[in-house]
């Protein structure tokens, strides 16, 4: 797998998020982030995670997002959008650069030659 440049990945993610969230009203509100945290913390989510994965869900990142949102309240909406996009772009860039279950496979640029093998009469003898 080719080595990715962290700065390039960050810029790609930042540009993508700017297009995805063109106005300050497009970024999540503190109330929606708080709802995400609470829904992670309720007993239903706890039991479902224990059943599926054998451990409780990790809700602290959701709480950190909520606290980060509260820290942005004093900023102008456009400035708040830029700071939020910066943080999310860093998060997505880290996620893209870290190991993944998809790293096992190399991306093929050309199909395999003579695959599948042509069926011949010799195969049946």
From TrEMBL:
Pfam families: PANTS-like. It comes from the Eukaryota. This is Early meiotic induction protein 1. It comes from Agaricus bisporus var. burnettii. The lineage of its organism: Eukaryota, Fungi, Dikarya, Basidiomycota, Agaricomycotina.
């Amino acid at each position: 797998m080719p080595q990715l440049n962290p700065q390039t990945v960050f810029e790609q993610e930042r540009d993508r998020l700017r297009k995805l969230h063109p106005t300050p009203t497009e970024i999540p509100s503190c109330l929606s982030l708080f709802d995400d945290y609470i829904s992670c913390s309720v007993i239903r989510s706890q039991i479902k995670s224990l059943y599926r994965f054998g451990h409780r869900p990790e809700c602290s990142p959701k709480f950190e997002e909520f606290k980060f949102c509260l820290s942005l309240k004093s900023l102008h909406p456009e400035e708040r959008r830029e700071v939020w996009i910066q943080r999310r772009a860093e998060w997505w860039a880290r996620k893209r650069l870290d190991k993944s279950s998809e790293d096992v496979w190399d991306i093929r640029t050309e199909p395999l030659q003579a695959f599948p093998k042509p069926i011949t009469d010799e195969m049946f003898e």
